[in-house]
Specification:
Layout: E1 4-12, H1 16-27, E2 32-35, H2 40-46, E3 51-55, H3 56-64, H4 70-73, E4 76-78, E5 80-86, E6 94-100, E7 110-114, H5 115-128, E8 132-135, E9 140-145, E10 150-154, E11 159-167, H6 174-178, E12 183-198, E13 206-212, E14 216-222, E15 226-234, H7 235-242, H8 246-257, E16 265-280, E17 284-285, E18 288-290, E19 296-297, H9 305-325, H10 333-361, H11 366-380, H12 383-393
Parallel strand pairs: 1-2, 1-11, 2-8, 5-13, 11-18
Antiparallel strand pairs: 3-7, 4-7, 5-6, 9-10, 10-11, 12-15, 12-16, 13-14, 14-15, 16-19, 17-18
Helix pairs in contact: 1-5, 1-9, 9-10
Length: about 400
């Protein structure tokens, strides 16, 4: 039998959250092993074309671990956010609300970032940093935990022991199933059609959120004359539209977005994702902690999925550094309970918020329509409320971990 190698921390999953977690921990002097069952090339290929909205505090995290480089990351700032509604394609687009950048001195509340560039920067640092051991194309086939350590066996029969096992293996977490973890799950009976567009007009760094009868449609700015779209639709209608040939699909899209984009055309393939709320009731276990999509999946309406995972990262780093400073076992139950307590309110409140907003704006019920009209009108007239929601979108609320601060 192969000898057991000892590492302070092991992370399952080299996706965006798992990779950022490893780099953040290594930047603080901790030794980390990252294990992923796929190759780096496969991860890039599988996520080709995906984009994310990165909040201001998430940007601070990348700054604080030395990865923020706007040119390398090819980021596009969101300067303004326009909220509008439309009953059908024959109806005019009606303005509801506009969020403008607070002042010139303040960074944008969020940025659009493409998976390819972010993954490339993270991958380069994973391979460069001597505190990080990256093991690709190997799966964790067994793990056994006692009072002192977790022992992990990989698919090549190699053994690793660690104080704490951080799990970031995606939405359908195999470890969660193995441990019989309990999830709260709600299907929205919707799917999201996602893709990238080129167009003739300048987007002027404006993000658009259109509330349509079938569900919300977001148009978000990328570098150059390019944008990304996220269109939430009922499953039956969404499947029909998604199977349309590119030209017909663009016609459907153009009918709904009006003149927001001029002469749009698809870049690459559009993708389809089922939409649901999936929430791990308890994110910790014996010497184990779940982060990112393995712990929660929310509606993409607010564009907060990646940011929620990055807040997991920053909070767990804070907790583990405090534990290290006090000479504590990094996998101790006391430390993990501190993390669970810190993150629970943010996770629950954001999941509830996105669930409520989706229900409110994907519903043609007269009372819901009246409520959202009144709410939007009140919000549009209040600079104080607008400022609150901008700061919320930027992630600047609650007890922030140090990595999320400037």
């Amino acid at each position: 039998m192969k000898s057991t190698k000892k590492r302070q921390i092991v992370i399952a999953g080299a996706g965006l959250i798992g990779s950022t977690m490893a780099i953040a921990l290594a930047s603080k002097g901790l030794d980390v092993t990252v294990v992923d069952g796929t190759s780096e090339e496969d991860r890039i290929k599988r996520n080709k074309g995906r984009t994310y909205a990165l909040s201001r505090t998430s940007k601070n995290l990348l700054v604080n671990i030395g990865l923020w480089d706007p040119k390398r990351l090819n980021v596009s700032p969101i300067e303004n956010i326009m909220l509008s509604t439309r009953k059908n394609s024959s109806d005019t687009i009606r303005h509801l609300l506009e969020f403008n950048k607070e002042t010139r001195e303040v960074d944008p509340s969020s940025y659009m970032i493409e998976d390819f560039y972010l993954r490339k920067v993270l991958g380069s640092e994973l391979n460069r940093n001597k505190k990080i051991q990256l093991i690709n194309s190997k799966e964790v086939i067994e793990d056994h935990t006692n009072s002192f350590e977790t022992k992990i066996m990989l698919s090549d029969k190699s053994l690793i022991s660690t104080e704490i096992f951080i799990i970031s293996d995606g939405r359908e977490s195999g470890f969660a199933k193995r441990l019989n973890k309990i999830f709260f799950k709600k299907s929205y009976n919707q799917l999201a059609i996602v893709g990238n567009l080129s167009h003739q007009n300048e987007h002027k760094s404006v993000a658009h959120q259109l509330f349509l009868s079938g569900g919300p449609l977001a148009i978000l700015p990328l570098q150059g004359k390019r944008s990304t779209f996220v269109w939430s639709l009922p499953i039956e209608i969404g499947n029909k539209i998604s199977k349309s040939k590119d030209e017909k699909f663009i016609n459907y899209l153009q009918d709904n977005i009006g003149d927001i984009l001029t002469n749009p055309s698809l870049i690459g393939e559009k993708k389809i994702f089922p939409l649901y709320l999936r929430f791990l009731r308890d994110t910790i276990d014996n010497r184990k902690v779940f982060i990112g999509d393995s712990a929660q999946a929310i509606h993409p309406l607010a564009g907060q999925g990646l940011n929620l995972g990055l807040r997991d990262v920053a909070s767990l780093v804070d907790i583990l550094l405090k534990g290290k400073k006090l000479g504590l076992d990094l996998g101790s139950n006391d430390l993990l309970k501190q993390y669970e307590s810190w993150r629970s309110f943010d996770r629950i409140s954001l999941a509830t918020y996105t669930d409520f907003i989706n229900t409110l704006f994907s519903n043609n019920n007269f009372y819901f329509k009246t409520l959202r009209e009144l709410g939007m009108n009140a919000l549009d007239r209040s600079d104080l409320l607008k400022s609150f929601f901008v700061k919320e979108a930027a992630g600047e609320y609650g007890n922030l971990p140090r990595l999320l601060k400037q």
